[in-house]
């Protein structure tokens, strides 16, 4: 629909003064859905969850409760998979339509804490599940939660994220507590145009999980393109994305 997205333009200063020479001006262009999508884009949603020994107690129980809430939020048109990792990996729920909620919730109940942390194994298994239903008719999304460092496989994690980003999958990378690698999670999010965040307390996990699933369900368009036609003598100098993280989009002025 032509009016599915509304563009709002805001100048850094207005009015722009008329001068005798060149000047620099900043323009913010915001693209927002005109209304909530009448038909949501079906999700291909994978949860990759740390269940290492350090997750015992309140962390694990809060994670399981938050995961149950995600399952309850998904529709029968969505595909969901759940991968759990410690220093090994288990595909708890292979990619499947989120219709049989009882079976999905029962699988979550079986999660117990164990072992160390090898995040790349979880990400690899998650990527495998996401590939099963990849396509232009679904929004690929990985929700990753860890409470610890992953040792020796950081570059493998980054390479998986790059591959997921190229396939159009976004990662929301969440660090719980204070022992995780902030730079690594930021990189995983950046490579997929996703986001990363810090969860201070276990009882806040459900808020971040719900925010992630609502963001995915609120998608109004995929692979959108913005064409700007500028008046004479106006030349862009740089183009940056502002959200979810600030990034230079690589625009280069022609010679």
CATH topology of one domain: Rossmann fold
The order of strands across the largest sheet is 5-4-3-6-7-8
Helix and strand content put the structural class at alpha/beta
CATH class label of one domain: Alpha Beta
Instruction: Output the radius of gyration.
Output: 21 Å
Question: What do we call the CATH homologous superfamily of one domain?
Answer: von Willebrand factor, type A domain
Number of helices: 6
Contiguous runs where pLDDT drops below 50 for at least 5 residues:
none
Number of strands: 10
Helix content: 25-40%
Major sheet description: 6 strands, mixed
Descriptors:
255 residues, alpha/beta, Rossmann fold, 6-stranded mixed β-sheet, two-stranded antiparallel sheet, 29% helix, elongated
How does the SSE layout of this entry go?
Elements (H helix, E strand, L loop, with lengths): L4 E7 L15 E7 L9 E8 L7 H16 L5 E7 L3 E9 L3 H9 L9 H13 L7 E8 L7 H13 L3 E7 L5 H10 L3 E5 L5 H13 L22 E2 L5 E2 L7
Parallel strand pairs: 3-4, 3-6, 6-7, 7-8
Antiparallel strand pairs: 1-2, 4-5, 9-10
Helix pairs in contact: 1-2, 1-6, 3-4, 4-5
Structure, explained:
The chain has 255 residues and is an alpha/beta fold. The protein has a domain at 43-217: Rossmann fold (3-Layer(aba) Sandwich). Helices cover 29% and strands 24% of the residues. It has six helices and ten strands. The chain has helices at 58-73, 101-109, 119-131, 154-166, 182-191, 205-217; strands spanning 5-11, 27-33, 43-50, 79-85, 89-97, 139-146, 170-176, 195-199, 240-241, 247-248. A six-stranded mixed sheet has the order 5-4-3-6-7-8, sandwiched between helices. Helix 1 (58-73) runs parallel beside helix 6 (205-217) and helix 3 (119-131) packs parallel to helix 4. It starts with a strand and ends in a 7-residue tail after the last strand. 36% of the residues are buried.
């Amino acid at each position: 629909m032509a009016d599915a997205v509304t563009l709002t333009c805001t100048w850094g200063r207005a009015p722009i003064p008329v001068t005798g020479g060149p000047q620099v001006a900043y323009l913010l262009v915001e693209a927002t859905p005109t209304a909530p999508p009448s038909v949501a884009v079906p999700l291909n949603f994978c949860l990759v969850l740390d269940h290492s020994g350090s997750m015992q107690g309140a962390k694990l129980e809060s994670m399981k409760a938050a995961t149950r809430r995600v399952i309850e939020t998904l529709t029968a048109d969505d595909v969901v998979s759940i991968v759990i990792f410690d220093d090994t990996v288990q595909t708890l729920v292979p990619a499947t339509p989120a219709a049989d909620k009882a079976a999905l919730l029962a699988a979550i109940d079986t999660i117990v804490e164990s072992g160390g942390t090898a995040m790349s194994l979880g990400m690899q298994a998650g990527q495998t599940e996401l590939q099963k239903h990849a396509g232009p008719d679904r929004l690929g999304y990985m929700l990753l939660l860890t409470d610890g460092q992953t040792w020796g496989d950081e570059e493998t994690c980054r390479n998986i994220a790059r591959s997921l980003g190229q396939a159009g999958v976004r990662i929301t990378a969440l660090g719980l507590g204070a022992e995780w690698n902030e730079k690594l999670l930021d990189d995983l999010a950046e490579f997929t145009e996703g986001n990363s965040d810090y969860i201070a307390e276990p009882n806040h996990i459900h808020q971040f999980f719900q925010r992630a699933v609502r963001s995915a369900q609120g998608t109004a368009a995929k692979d959108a393109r913005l064409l700007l036609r500028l008046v004479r003598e106006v030349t862009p100098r740089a183009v940056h994305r502002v959200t979810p993280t600030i990034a230079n989009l690589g625009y280069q002025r022609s010679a």
